[in-house]
Design a protein that fits this description.
One of its GO terms (biological process) is ribosome biogenesis. Belongs to the CBF/MAK21 family. It holds the Pfam family CBF. The chain is an all-alpha fold. The protein has three domains: 126 residues; 69 residues, no CATH class; 121 residues, no CATH class. It is 49% helix and 0% strand. Helix 1 packs across helix 3, helix 6 packs parallel to helix 8 and helix 8 packs parallel to helix 10.
Length: 365
């Protein structure tokens, strides 16, 4: 069977692709065209374990390896095409159990390599998109993903998505996950392009109605506090996010009108506390939302006014708001027609000319 595909030449080609001197992204993209042939795809998987470095390779080799791995699929192509065969036809059979076994074997080595921030990010991308569903023991990734949460930036968000997959698919129970998630909500998140992913994943993590109310209250309070310094488009998302948390946990309605806490100077909430359960959020109130009701932008002010009306029965869909920008809010505002057109700053008392007007300096009436 192996004689149909020249394995020595295939191995030599892959050795050139997996260079440790230069990134071969264009060469890998060209090689992807041949991966449409089932025999080339299958034997690429079979050859790859022998080319996987056991010790720590340099970051160039690692990046080439991950870029190639990202292009490989463990399943047979939808249309069966054979590149190497005889005129009488090939008896080649694509065995998916072999490709999955090869994937698990090489991934064990890849995880032991020392990664730079760039290769660390690429590793998580490949893991989420290609590897995770096929690992024999995916829960072994838990500690690696938890450590990745401390890296910050896109690495943390990719790790958060991996943890959510483990929780949802493999019933992972990791007690510190919500403490890690809570610590990710910092003012800097509003200035990154990955904030939409954080809001989306956080909404999924906090979707369970069985979470402790004091834990959810801490997230609601932290979001409300961050909304005071957030861009206008993010304030709207935060208001709806907090509304969803209150809908899932009706006990949080006490935060809407707590008479013992109506301003910052009487607020017991500790923003600097890392542990959400020790932040005294349940003794606080969402006075920040009342403050935002006086925002200069009507859309933002109206979003914060949901606390003054009965809550809806259905949650707000955050997915439709995550892609909104400040330009979108501006465009909606300029399209509105005002019924009250202001011609001067001071309302006149009669038919006389307004105060401070200079018309009389140039006209005799």
């Amino acid at each position: 069977l192996d004689n149909y595909v020249p394995l020595p030449k295939l191995k030599s080609l892959l050795m050139k692709i997996l260079s440790n001197k230069q990134i071969n992204s264009q060469l890998i993209n060209k090689y992807t065209e041949y991966l449409l042939f089932d025999d080339i795809l299958f034997f690429t998987w079979k050859v790859l374990p022998s080319l996987t470095a056991k010790s720590n390779p340099n970051d160039v080799y690692i990046m080439n390896y991950l870029l190639l791995l990202e292009k490989l699929q463990v399943y047979q192509n939808s249309e069966t095409n054979i590149l190497c065969g005889t005129e009488e036809g090939s008896f080649f059979t694509f065995d998916e159990t072999v490709t999955i076994k090869c994937l698990n074997k090489i991934w064990h080595c890849v995880m032991l390599w020392e990664h730079t921030p760039h290769t660390h990010k690429q590793l998580l991308i490949v893991m989420l998109e290609k590897v995770l569903p096929h690992l024999e023991k995916p829960l072994l990734l838990t500690d690696f993903l938890m450590d990745s949460l401390d890296v910050g930036g896109p690495v943390s968000l990719l790790a958060l998505q991996g943890l959510f997959n483990l929780i949802q698919t493999h019933n992972l129970n990791y007690p510190n996950i919500f403490v890690k998630l809570y610590s990710m909500f910092e003012p800097e998140i509003f200035h990154t392009k990955y904030k939409a992913r954080l809001f989306f994943l956080s909404d999924l993590f906090l979707s369970s109605t069985h979470l402790p109310e004091n834990l959810v209250a801490a997230f609601a309070k932290r979001l409300a506090r961050l909304a005071l310094i957030a861009p206008s488009e993010d304030i709207i998302v935060i208001c709806k996010f907090i509304g969803n948390l209150i809908l899932r946990h009706p006990g949080l309605k006490c935060l809407l009108n707590n008479p013992n806490c109506s301003a910052a100077n009487t607020d017991p909430y500790i923003m600097e506390e890392r542990d959400p359960l020790r932040s005294y959020a349940m003794s606080s109130s969402l006075w920040e939302l009342e403050t935002l009701q006086h925002h200069v932008l009507p859309n933002v002010a109206n979003a914060a006014k949901f606390i003054n009306a009965p809550l809806p029965r259905v949650e707000w869909d955050l997915g439709k708001m995550l892609d909104s920008t400040g330009d979108d809010i501006f465009d909606r505002e300029v399209k509105k027609f005002s019924k009250l057109i202001v011609l001067q700053f001071e309302k006149p008392n009669g038919a006389t000319i307004g105060k401070g007007d200079r018309v009389m300096q140039y006209w005799n009436l």
